[in-house]
């Protein structure tokens, strides 16, 4: 029996429906909490296969 994925790759996941990725969200928080003098930019790369949830993750943390 095949189980259908309830999400489509054309639409982003509503943040209230977002599950998992706690490690990734915590990595964002840690990176953004780094303070330096003088202030310097923080770069974060979000990479992965098509439809894996990169944009949904960025929407969740408020970057899109």
Topology at a glance:
Blueprint (H helix, E strand, L loop, with lengths): L21 H12 L20 H7 L4
Describe the structure.
The chain has 64 residues and is mostly helical. It has two helices and no strands. The longest helix has 12 residues, at 22-33.
Distance between the termini: 37 Å
The chain-level structural class is mainly alpha
In total, the number of strands is 0
Instruction: Give a quick account of the main beta sheet: strands, pairing sense, barrel closure.
Output: none
Given the C-alpha coordinates, what overall shape results? elongated
Question: How is this structure best summarized?
Answer:
With 64 residues, this protein is an all-alpha fold. It is built from two helices and no strands. The longest helix is centred in the middle third of the chain and has 12 residues.
List keywords for this structure.
64 residues; mainly alpha; 2 helices; elongated
């Amino acid at each position: 029996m095949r189980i259908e994925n309830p999400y489509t790759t054309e639409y982003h996941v509503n943040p209230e429906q977002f599950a998992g990725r706690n490690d990734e969200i915590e990595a964002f928080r840690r990176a953004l909490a780094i303070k330096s003098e003088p202030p310097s930019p923080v770069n974060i790369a979000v990479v992965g296969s098509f439809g894996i949830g990169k944009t949904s993750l960025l929407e969740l943390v408020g970057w899109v």
